[in-house]
Write a structure and sequence with these properties.
The chain is α+β, with helices and mostly antiparallel strands. The chain has eight helices and four strands. Strands 2-3-1-4 form a four-stranded antiparallel β-sheet. The protein starts with a helix and ends with a helix.
């Protein structure tokens, strides 16, 4: 659930992610327009927004609010003109963005490029770590379910040893004797998966509700679990349990 929401945050943020290109002070309008046209033709850039010195100063006034008085003593506008460039979502990865920023910074007339390099790198590091953790936990759960099913089927098998001996005397094949235990494993896994899906739904719904109460803004980034998840969990439980059952009946000598 945490990994899913982290991916949701990254995807939503990537749609609005951009880099800011600050221009040299000595550029004239013609040169600025030439730069704009160059950015518009770039296939990696999906949106270009020009911000003049005056607009930048107005935005700074709004940001500072009551503290904007510190700007009153300025003789001239110290802020440069700039372009805000929105990149394709597929490009929003630390290495790719850095390469693009370096490429743009080399263009004549560009003074500096900023895009929050450390924040982007940290976000993706956390995302990768969480995905790796999810894989490790998933693997551990797989092994645990297989072992539990294995042990359960062995217990069932030995409890019915007399019945199995009778079936053998009647000429039952090994496959015929094994099949009920495999089916039992299937049912155990399926029921366990259904219960797990209900628990996941309950925990996720409760957590989402409580987090939204305390932090209303978090509702904007929390992703709903896809319906497929509630189907995959029981099916995965059934498959893993069947594997455990096969291993169990295969190990038993009778």
């Amino acid at each position: 659930m945490i990994t899913l929401n982290m991916d949701s945050v990254i995807q939503r943020w990537a749609k609005n992610f951009g880099i800011v290109v600050y221009l040299n002070e000595d550029l004239n309008k013609k040169e600025e327009n030439a730069l704009k046209n160059r950015f518009l033709k770039d296939k990696d850039i999906i949106e270009v927004k020009y911000i003049s010195k005056e607009e930048a100063l107005k935005e700074l006034h709004k940001t500072l609010g009551a503290n904007a008085l510190v700007l009153e003593g300025l003789d001239e506008n110290p802020l440069p003109s700039s372009f805000e460039l929105r990149l394709k979502s597929s490009l929003i990865k630390p290495g790719l963005v850095k390469n693009k920023a370096v490429q743009i910074e080399r263009i004549s007339g560009v003074d500096e490029v900023q895009y929050g390099e450390k924040w982007l790198s940290s976000l993706y590091t956390v995302s990768k770590t969480m995905k790796l953790g999810a894989i490790i936990i998933g693997g551990a759960i797989f092994i645990a379910i297989t072992f539990i099913t294995f042990s359960t089927i062995k217990i069932f098998f030995y409890r019915r040893k007399d019945e199995i001996e009778t079936l053998k005397l009647l000429g039952a094949t090994r496959s015929f004797i094994r099949l009920p235990f495999v089916l039992e494993g299937l049912i155990i896994g399926l029921l366990g998966g259904i219960i797990s899906s209900l628990v996941i739904f309950g925990i996720y719904s409760f957590t989402s509700l409580k987090m939204t109460e305390f932090l209303p803004s978090i509702n904007l980034v929390m992703a709903s679990l896809p319906f497929q998840v509630y189907l995959i969990v029981p099916l995965a439980g059934a498959v893993v349990s069947v594997i455990g059952s096969f291993i169990a009946v295969g190990k038993i000598r009778y």
